[in-house]
Design goal:
five-stranded antiparallel β-sheet, 2 domains
């Protein structure tokens, strides 16, 4: 580790040189883009708001490339761009920034320098791909007298086309709007850097720093050993957290299974929170909504007395209130009302869950619609024979429900998270199954006696 530190310090000058190089290139690109954008905006404004307006208004001013020799003359856009280039060059006497307006179609009486390979290729690229907006070249690596060249297209506007096609010195007379007249080129050269200071001083400083680093290495090693011990402890904690996360994942899966079983139970299930004022319902399953006609939105948050009505037995209501007040279980049948106002007989079972003895946190309620069974009481035995075909199917469905409850009970008991909530649910589920089993047995007994005859 110590040698790696020393090597890193020795490489510091190279890193600094590379950083300076990158910063220089970025600065050149930014300056070139700014200057090109400025020149383009000036030339476009001049063409659109000076020449075009004078043309449309038949103005008296004369626009010419030789405007200085013409009374009332104003420069044409190309002349303006060329003279702006001279201004840019004069602004940087060291030649660091230069601007040129170039074309492969110069006016006949104008002295034009030959285009180099970069400029020729730029014009060709813009004419080949009219949507292209820049053509660049970087020479050098950003150090010393490296250069960044940026070319942008000069596009013929309507005022330019009219002037160039009619000018006697124009080498081309069939210009159209959108044609590439030439390019404007901005060149930004890097600062002249002969050296990076006295590198001897820099290396001397690094040497001193290296000696200090060696002196501090002992301290670092002691700290490293402490960190290793801390890492070992953190590794143990991480292992424990991983085990806990795995157990939590299993618990979530089991709770999801339990929730699915509750939601899809054939028995209506509702849970009331006894800790809140007026003991509102906090959960109802699908069977509850089907039996009562109340959706979850209409049931959750309200006391379940909304199921009571004018013909609900007040004595049975009193028994329910007493069981709730004393935190005791309740089982009975009472007349309730659905959301649409229709009546049904409800086989109700209440089971306290959580909290302390006599003061549970929740009550789990099971509802079974026994309206049909109560209506069949007193019906002639002959009418019950129609049930014979469905009796075996009912027994099979009840057996499947019991097997599922037993499997769920065994699964939950094998975990470390067996709580009173699933136990209360399974107990109430078994009570409902037993009640249905008793009813089926009664019907079966009646049918057997009828079939045996007198």
């Amino acid at each position: 580790m110590l040698w790696l530190l020393l090597a890193s310090l020795l490489l510091l000058p190279l890193v600094m040189v590379n950083a300076i190089s990158g910063a220089t290139v970025a600065q050149m690109k930014m300056q070139a883009a700014e200057i090109a954008s400025l020149a383009t905006d000036i030339r476009s404004y001049y063409a659109d708001n000076v020449i075009a307006r004078l043309q449309a208004a038949d103005g008296k001013a004369v626009y010419s490339e030789n405007y200085r020799q013409v009374h009332g003359g104003i420069p044409i856009p190309a002349t303006l761009s060329i003279e702006l280039g001279a201004l840019f060059d004069n602004a940087h006497r060291d030649g660091r920034i230069s601007y040129e307006f170039l074309s492969d179609y110069p006016f006949a009486k104008r002295v034009a320098k030959p285009l180099d390979d970069f400029e020729t290729e730029a014009i060709r690229a813009f004419r080949t791909n009219p949507s292209r907006t820049t053509f660049t070249q970087l020479t050098g690596n950003g150090l010393g007298r490296s250069a960044y060249r940026l070319a942008t297209p000069v596009i013929m506007r309507r005022a330019c086309v009219t002037c160039h096609n009619a000018h006697p010195d124009s080498p081309k007379r069939d210009w159209k709007v959108g044609d590439i007249r030439g390019i404007q080129e901005v060149t930004v050269r890097g600062l002249q850097v002969n050296s990076f200071g006295r590198l001897g001083n820099m290396f001397g400083y690094i040497s001193v720093l290296g000696i200090l680093s060696v002196a501090a290495a002992g301290v670092f090693q002691r700290q490293s050993r402490k960190l290793e011990r801390i890492n070992e402890k953190l590794s143990i904690v991480h292992t424990r957290e991983s085990d806990l996360a795995a157990r939590m994942s299993d618990q979530v899966e089991e709770l999801a299974l339990f929730g699915t079983a509750v939601d899809n139970s054939i028995v209506g299930i509702a849970i009331a929170d006894m800790r809140k004022p007026d003991s509102p319902l906090v959960y109802v399953n699908n069977a509850f909504t089907q039996i009562t006609g109340y959706s979850r939105d209409l049931a959750v948050g309200f006391n379940c007395r909304f199921l009571q009505g004018p013909d609900t037995d007040p004595n049975e209501i009193q028994k329910i209130r007493k069981a709730l007040d004393q935190g005791q279980a309740y089982t009975g049948e009472l007349l309730n009302y659905r959301h649409d106002g229709s009546r049904f007989w409800n086989r109700l079972t209440l089971s306290p869950v959580g909290g302390s003895a006599g003061k549970p946190d929740f009550f789990v309620a099971n509802q079974v619609d026994v309206t049909q069974l109560r209506q069949e009481r007193g019906v002639p035995v002959e009418a019950l024979t129609a049930l014979a075909g469905n009796l075996e199917a009912a027994r099979s469905a009840l057996a499947d429900a019991r097997r599922f409850a037993e499997a769920l009970d065994q699964l939950l008991r094998r975990t470390d998270h067996w709580t009173v909530e699933p136990e209360a649910y399974l107990r109430s589920e078994e009570q409902a199954h037993q009640h249905l089993d008793d009813r089926l047995a009664q019907i079966s007994g009646v049918l057997d006696r009828y079939n045996q005859g007198p």
